[in-house]
Request: fold
Amino acid sequence: MTATPAIEGWFTTGEAPALLGSRCPSCSTVYFPPVSGFCRNPGCDGEGFESAELSRVGTVWSYTDAQYQPPAPYIARGEVHAPFAIAAVELPEGLVVLGQVADGFGVADLTVGARVELVVEELCPGELIWRWQPVAS
Reply:
C-alpha cells in the first residue's frame, strides 16, 4: 500500500515537501488552507485564486503539548494516547500555520523564534501528514 496525504491538496510529499495555499492575483494575499471564491482581504474585491507553494521553513510563534487526547476526528496512533507537541509556525508569507511537531521532538526542543522546517510523516497506516521539525542550529 502506498501512503497518500491525509488531506488532499493541502501539501506535497517527496524530498522537499511543501504546504499548498492560495494567492489572490489582485492583492497577493496568501491563504492556508487553500480557498476559493472571493478574496477575504477587506481591501480587495478579487475573485479567483492561484495555487501557491508556501515556504518550507518558518519560526516558532507559539507551542504547547497535547497531554490529553483530542476529540474526533483526531486519530490516535495507538491504544493509549501519547502526548505530543504542537507548534504555531510563522512563515515568511505572513501566515501562522498550526501543526504537530515531528516524531522524536517535544516542547523541550522548542523555543519561540526557533527555526523549524516542514517534514511529512505517517499519521496512520497509509496516510501522511505535515509536521514541524526543529532545524539544527
